[in-house]
Design a protein that fits this description.
single chain; alpha+beta; 6-stranded antiparallel sheet; 11 strands; 18% helix; 27% strand; elongated; disordered N terminus
């Protein structure tokens, strides 16, 4: 009987370390299930104020020195400017030249990426005339002291076309464009007593 009891105790002592090891492993696994991971050194960077904004494009037609606005855009970014008359509104005789200056001031926060002049339909009056004055008058445009339009440009050739004007004004910059109309000296007498009309649109694009 005594040997049987001793053998039984020896068997219990032999399995006790295995039970202890299993308990430790279970405890570690349980702790990891709560913490998710073991601790580590970290470095983190927080950027709390990340913003972006839009540019504003604002161009006004002004007096020569830019001090007075003569025509400004509305909230939609458009304006109809009755003055100045870019073709002068004056009477031309063969050989005459008339120039009109329009000044632009950039009152916005960015330099436009594009500046262009677009010609609308040109009409000659009276409509019954067999001569088209739109095809007789020569138009030139000077910007930053350089010619922009091809030589011998007429209102008729401007109609329906867009001409890019280089180097738009930067913020606060004041620049003038000079539009000149000429009736060639060799113009025939058949052009006498005619007039023409054409809308012209300046467009600045940001």
């Amino acid at each position: 009987m005594s040997r049987h009891v001793i053998a039984n105790r020896a068997g219990r002592r032999r399995f006790s370390p295995l039970l202890i090891g299993a308990g430790v492993a279970a405890a570690v696994a349980l702790s990891m299930s709560f913490s998710g991971t073991l601790s580590a050194y970290t470095a983190s960077f927080v950027h709390p104020d990340n913003t972006v904004s839009t540019a504003s494009i604002s161009i006004a037609e002004t007096s020569a020195d830019g001090s007075n606005t003569t025509c400004g855009t509305d909230s939609s970014g458009t304006a109809t400017c009755r003055t100045a008359n870019l073709y002068s509104g004056q009477t031309l005789s063969p050989g005459d030249t008339k120039s009109t200056t329009v000044t632009f001031k950039n009152t916005g926060s960015t330099t436009p990426q594009r500046f262009a002049l677009t010609g609308g339909a040109c009409t000659t009056s009276p409509a019954s005339s067999s001569v088209d004055l739109c095809d007789k008058v020569v138009v030139s445009l000077k910007w930053r002291n350089a010619d922009v339009l091809p030589a011998s440009t007429t209102p008729k050739s401007l109609a329906g076309t867009t001409t890019v004007v280089p180097n738009p004004p930067a913020p606060t910059e004041v620049l003038s464009a000079v539009v000149t109309v000429t009736l060639p000296a060799d113009t025939a007498n058949s052009t006498s007593g005619l007039s023409l009309s054409q809308p012209l649109t300046w467009t600045f694009t940001a």
